[in-house]
Structures are given as C-alpha cells and as structure tokens.
C-alpha cells in the first residue's frame, strides 16, 4: 500500500513547483519523472548520504543516463572550489542545457547543487531531495542557492527555483540527534515569526519531535513548508516580506563565520541568534520580557543553545556588517513585535545592541 503523500505548491506562475512530503517517497519514481528534462541526470550527494540513499534514487531514474558526484560532507566544503567539481563533471560528460541536477542531501548539498544548476550553461533544471530536517523545512524550498566565503556566509549565490522538492520523512531515521535538533531551530522560527498557534503546538509536542515520532515530524514539516511556500510566493527575491525568514540569522551567520564553518551547525547558530534577537526586541520595547523568556524556553526545550559562543562584540559587529542583509554596512535585524509577529528593523540603538551582545552566559567554542 502506498504511503500517504502531502503535496503543496510554491505558487510562482509558470515556475510553480510541488513539494511532496511522505514516508517512503524514495521509491516513487513517478513523482520525479514529470520534472526531468532530457535523458541526462546527475545526482549530487555527499560521502555520508551516498551509502544510505544513492542507490534508491538511482533506481527511480529508469531510462535516464545517470551519473553521480559525491562530495565531502560539511559546511566547510560549501565553496566555489567544491561547486567547480560539479561543473567539471558535467563538462566531462557533455551535459547539455536539457540536463537535470538532483540534490540529494542536506542544506549544503542543496545550496551548492542549486547554484551549479543556476550557473551551468546559464541555467539547467534541478530537483531537491533533502535528507535532513533543516533542509526539508527550509533550505530546499524557495530557491536560495549559493556558497560561503571566508568573510561571509552565502555571500555568493542566486535565486533559482527547483522543479520539484521530494521529502521522504524516513530519511530522518538516520539523522544524528545533533542534526535533528539543528533542524528544529528552523521549525521553531516559523512559529516565532508568523504562526503563534504552531508555536503553541511545538511547546506541547517537542518531546514527540525529539523522539522522532513520525506523525509529529510529518506535521511539523508540512506546516513549515506551508509557511515558507506562502512567503516565497509573495516575495520571491526578498525585497520585503521574505526577509522575516531571517530571524536569528544576522547573529547566527556571524557566529558561523567567526567560529569557522562547521564548528557550530547552522541551526545551532540560528537558535542562539533567535534568543539574541528576542533579547534585543525586549530591550527596544518591542517584546514583553515574558515573551522573550518564552521564546528562549521553547528553543532550550529542543536541546538547542540559547547563548552564543565567546565572541567579542566587536567581532559580532564586524561580521554582521558584512552580512548579505546589511545595507551599505548598516546592520539590519529581524526582530519580534510579539510571538508570531516579526518585523525588519535597521538603525538599532548601538547601546542596546551592545547590551544584547554582552548579556548573559557564553558557550565554549565547540558544540
């Protein structure tokens, strides 16, 4: 009997695409076939995911000319040099503009594969098959692609939408606990920015999510994808509303960059960043202290860090000023005007920002 499939759509006119969510979808080649162009398909994955799921995805591509690129695993490899490995493989095989790239892995693989697809011969099709919770609820949806540079995260990239997102929830069975918790940071974000009812649900069901109960995980993925799909449909290239998806990311990207990519996972850095954003929101009079404490409590209940590492305020400001969301060096923050209501603010009072950067405990360098 086929598993239940939840299907959503990212509404972008003639570039709209489906998100399929369910257990056992890596056996459903019929879900991929309508989104493949031509006979040439290249699966891009990494050394961790390939032994687990590559053969299953290859079996979904009957009748196609299938090749693979297996990259090293880790945020530290999200570079132009690594993307060049994909380009070189496509060129060696003579891949044309009608080829399709398939990203099989977490957010790093998805971002690099999407960027390669956006730029190889000025654009070829690609499909997202995310295998981590973070990539399933966030990075695989919405078309943000790119790579990191030593001075800033995701500073080189493109908006480039996939043809399809295929989310097999059973891939979470092999996900390490630390990675699962990191993904929950992005799930919590959707409640904090736009959905107080979902936030309340998360408070009640966090234990079930940490125990990997299938129904709870599927529900959290579906709501997260619905939230992101609606925001992307309204503001694809982040000229307005979509910026609220960056709650915690200004602080979080600074943590990742300062500590060295991969030392803190993206979700861990965003978790600490969201607590800092809530603290700054309270100091600015936008958020009640009790609400800031509640946000921190929910994040802590997921086993996520609620304080940054020991980075100096000067280092924070230096990297935040180079963040892609900054405007001519002016730091821009996504803050909370209530639980479930986010807003973009710039020109934040320097003394209040300094108070947030120096408040509370600091964690050790490694996670």
Strand order of the largest sheet: 4-3-5-6
CATH fold group of the largest domain = Dehydroquinate synthase-like, alpha domain
Q: Could you give the order of the helices and strands?
A: EEHEHEHEHEHEEEHHHHHHHEEH
Question: Could you give a short account of the major beta sheet?
Answer: 4 strands, parallel
Principal-axes geometry comes out as globular
Rg, Å, rounded: 20 Å
Specify the CATH architecture of the largest domain: Up-down Bundle
The figure for the number of domains is: 2
- In whole angstroms, the N-to-C terminal distance is 42 Å
Task: Estimate what percentage of residues fall within beta strands.
Answer: 15-25%
Keyphrases for this structure?
367 residues, single chain, Rossmann fold, Dehydroquinate synthase-like, alpha domain, 2 domains, three-stranded mixed β-sheet
Description of the molecule:
With 367 residues, this protein is α/β, with parallel strands linked by helices. The chain has 2 domains: 6-174, Rossmann fold (3-Layer(aba) Sandwich); 177-358, Dehydroquinate synthase-like, alpha domain. Helices cover 44% and strands 19% of the residues. The strands form 4 sheets. It has a 4-stranded parallel beta sheet with strand order 4-3-5-6, with helices on both faces. A 3-stranded mixed beta sheet has the order 1-2-9, with helices on one face. A hairpin with a 2-residue loop joins strand 7 and strand 8. The longest helix has 21 residues, at 214-234.
């Amino acid at each position: 009997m086929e598993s239940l499939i939840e299907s959503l759509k990212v509404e972008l006119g003639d570039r709209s695409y489906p998100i399929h969510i369910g257990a056992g979808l890596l056996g459903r080649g019929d879900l991929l076939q309508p989104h493949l162009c031509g006979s040439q398909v290249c699966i891009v994955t990494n050394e961790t995911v390939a032994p687990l799921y590559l053969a299953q995805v290859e079996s979904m591509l009957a009748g196609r000319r299938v090749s693979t690129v297996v990259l090293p695993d880790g945020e530290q490899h999200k570079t132009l040099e690594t993307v060049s490995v994909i380009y070189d493989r496509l060129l060696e095989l003579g891949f044309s503009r009608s080829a399709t790239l398939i990203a099989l892995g977490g957010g790093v693989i998805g971002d690099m594969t999407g960027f390669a697809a956006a730029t190889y011969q000025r654009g070829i099709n690609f499909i997202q098959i995310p295998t981590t919770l973070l990539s399933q609820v966030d990075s695989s949806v919405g078309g943000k692609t790119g790579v990191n540079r030593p001075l800033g995260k995701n500073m080189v990239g493109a908006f480039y939408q996939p043809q399809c997102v295929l989310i097999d929830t059973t891939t979470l069975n092999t996900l390490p606990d630390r990675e699962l918790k990191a993904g929950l940071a992005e799930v919590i974000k959707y409640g904090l920015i736009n959905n107080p009812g979902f936030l309340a649900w998360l408070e009640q069901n966090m234990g079930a999510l940490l125990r990997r109960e299938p129904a709870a995980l599927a529900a959290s993925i579906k709501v997260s994808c619905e939230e992101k799909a609606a925001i992307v449909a309204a503001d694809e290239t982040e000229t307005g509303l979509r910026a609220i998806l960056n709650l915690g990311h200004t602080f979080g990207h600074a943590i990742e960059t300062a500590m060295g990519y991969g030392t803190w996972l993206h979700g861990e850095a965003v978790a600490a960043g969201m607590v800092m954003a809530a603290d700054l929101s309270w100091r600015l009079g936008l958020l009640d202290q009790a609400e800031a404490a509640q946000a921190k409590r929910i994040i802590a209940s997921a086993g996520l860090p609620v304080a940054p590492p020991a980075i100096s305020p000067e280092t924070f400001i230096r990297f935040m000023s180079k963040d892609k969301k900054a405007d001519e060096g002016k730091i821009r923050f996504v803050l909370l005007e209530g639980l479930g209501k986010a807003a973009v603010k710039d020109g934040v009072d320097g003394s209040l920002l300094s108070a947030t950067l120096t408040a509370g405990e600091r964690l050790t360098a490694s996670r």
